[in-house]
Write a structure and sequence with these properties.
Layout lengths: L2 H10 L18 E5 L15 H10 L4 E3 L5 E3 L2 E6 L5 E6 L13 H14 L1 H7 L2 E6 L4 E6 L6 H5 L12 H4 L16 E3 L9 E6 L23 E5 L4 H9 L5 E2 L4 H7 L5 E5 L5 E7 L9 H9 L3 H8 L6 E2 L25 H9 L8 E6 L3 H17 L3 E6 L1 H7 L13 E7 L26 H12 L3 H17 L3 E7 L2 E5 L2 E2 L12 E2 L3
Parallel strand pairs: 1-10, 1-11, 15-16
Antiparallel strand pairs: 2-3, 4-5, 5-7, 6-7, 8-9, 9-10, 11-19, 12-19, 13-17, 13-18, 14-18, 20-21
Length: 527
């Protein structure tokens, strides 16, 4: 083993590079070619909750705080912070050496503008900004947040790690209308996005930011030293999963984010390849209705559709072997704090005959429902196929429209069809941490600032406000249960089951972090 390889392995095991004076040292000229779970189409991680854009965000941007492996919020761009005795004043000072990719220094004004834009889009950010009386830069490197009420989970909110990450951007970009996606990917993170090499939906390229100054603490998920070991990262696409798997076997790519379980079982027998689960808690499948247009603007129609949908059918079709999935009769991921069964076996046991009866009692007139099907996403496309059969058997007329996941992400933002083609239903999945409590954007009942589907439910919003205001654990648990009952009773969406995704990579790749794959920590070694 070479000395350089030993250093890489030690760093990945927790040795602090900066302490040895190695953080700024030249690193090996390595290129990782990876097949992500979807290809990058949208560059703005504030505008969309698409996970591929979030992963892109962790490469090119940085955050004020970050969660470590122990689920503790640690300072990232922040050097120090102060909280007043009454908990109403928070002051944050940035650490030295922060630069945007264009060479300009990161300032407190940049962070204020970034937080404002994030707070207009994200559910947890919206909850925070309801308590913010004022937020202002006090100097080049210090800003202050003044609250109307104490908000003790400030650090945890600013460290949000999965969907809706509060990434920092230059002020000139962060002042973009929150409802308009940005197109300039200038960040301050460990990698620079190469716009010239980008082919949306097919290829994305990241190059090492030679000016990035990592923290001195050991790398730990979104906290600590974010060291760009690789000189270059290429996300590439293939016509099919079979082609992508063969490319991994042939070492044309070194990393495959989301193979099907069948392919994962095949790859387990291949020499030189490692297969692991992305996360022990897993992901949650979801069927999403467009509440803004008929027929799913009617709760009774949504309930009829939900009644036809059987978790076991979805999990069996999309995931396969029961080693990789379980039923979950809750809007909160099973195994997390607020998980509890919804009544009447909602979400878990489909009944097509009952669904047909319920649908006949509504005003549904047989107008085809547009179901978007991302054929390049095997899991989601399998979910879609199950729904097509179940809903048609229940009496719905179906307009099945195939597209790529990137095309779906673009189209799902259209509420009513006034500005282009609309939709009635699609399927997706969330990492479990994105659904652990009522503050998450997926549970919003605000049709203006809520998540895709846009339920209009003032009762849910009132309950969420009570949850935010409560500092009593038992009371918060009670409110979480009431919110679940309301969401399930109005069929805001359908939970399709809980599953555990595999990841496959060449044995030479080291530095994997889970459940979110932070590419800045990956590198190669040679025996």
């Amino acid at each position: 083993m070479t000395v350089q390889t030993s250093l890489f392995r030690n760093a990945l095991a927790g040795v602090v590079f900066a302490a040895a004076g190695l953080a700024a040292a030249p690193l090996a000229a390595q290129t990782l070619r990876a097949v992500p779970h979807a290809q990058l189409e949208v560059l703005d991680p504030i505008w969309t909750t698409a996970y591929i854009t979030r992963t892109h965000g962790f490469l090119v941007y940085d955050t004020l705080f970050g969660f470590d492996r122990e689920n503790e919020a640690q300072p990232q761009m922040v050097d120090s912070w102060d909280v007043s005795e009454d908990g109403l004043e928070w002051s944050f000072t940035l650490r030295d050496g922060l630069k945007w990719h264009d060479g300009a220094p990161v300032t407190a004004e940049d962070c204020v503008a970034s937080l404002r834009r994030w707070g207009a889009r994200d559910g947890v950010g919206q909850a925070l900004f309801k308590q913010i009386a004022d937020i202002q830069a006090e100097s080049e490197d210090t800003f202050r947040i003044s609250l109307s009420k104490p908000y003790p989970r400030m650090k945890e909110t600013l460290a949000q790690m999965s969907s809706g990450v509060p990434f920092m951007m230059p002020k000139r970009i962060a002042e973009t209308d929150p409802d308009v996606p940005i197109t300039d990917p200038t960040g301050s993170g460990p990698f620079i996005f190469d716009l010239e090499e980008w082919v949306p939906g097919e290829r994305s390229v990241y190059v090492r930011n030679e000016d990035y100054v990592p923290r001195s603490e050991p790398t730990s998920l979104a906290a600590g030293a974010k060291i760009p070991f690789l000189e270059r990262i290429e996300w590439v696409s293939f016509p099919s999963q079979d082609d992508a798997v063969q490319a991994l076997i042939d070492n044309e790519v070194q990393y495959l984010e989301s193979p099907t379980t069948e392919h994962a079982e095949q790859l387990e027998d291949e020499e030189g390849i490692t297969v692991v689960l992305a996360d022990a808690v897993g992901s949650i499948g979801m069927g999403v209705f467009n509440h803004q247009i008929p027929p799913f603007d009617d709760a009774a129609v949504r309930m009829a559709a939900m009644t036809a949908m059987d978790q076991k059918a979805y999990m069996s079709a999309a995931i396969g072997t029961t080693d990789y999935w379980q039923l979950c009769p809750s809007i909160y991921p099973c195994g997390t704090e607020y998980a509890s069964p919804v009544g009447d076996k909602a979400f878990t046991t489909g009944d097509v005959d009952k669904a047909r009866e319920l649908l006949e009692q509504t005003d549904y007139d047989g107008t085809p429902i547009i179901v978007m099907d991302p054929v390049d996403s095997p899991v989601i496309s399998a979910f879609t196929e199950v729904s097509l059969t179940a809903l048609e058997d229940a009496g719905f007329t179906i307009d099945h429209q195939e597209m790529t996941w990137s095309e779906l992400v673009q189209r799902r933002a259209n509420r009513t069809g006034e500005d282009g083609e609309t939709w009635n239903m699609f399927h997706t999945w969330w990492l479990a941490p994105d659904l652990v409590d009522p503050l998450r954007i997926a549970f919003s009942g605000d049709p203006e600032s809520g998540w895709i589907g846009w339920p209009d439910d003032a009762e849910v919003e009132a309950l969420r406000a009570d949850y935010i205001a409560s500092d009593n654990d038992a009371e918060r648990a009670r409110l979480a249960g009431e919110i679940q009952d309301r969401i399930a009773g109005q069929a805001h969406f359908v939970v399709l089951g809980q599953f555990f995704e595999p990841i496959a990579f060449r044995d030479s790749v080291v530095g994997l972090q889970r459940p979110i794959q932070m590419y800045y920590n990956l590198t190669f070694f040679e025996e």
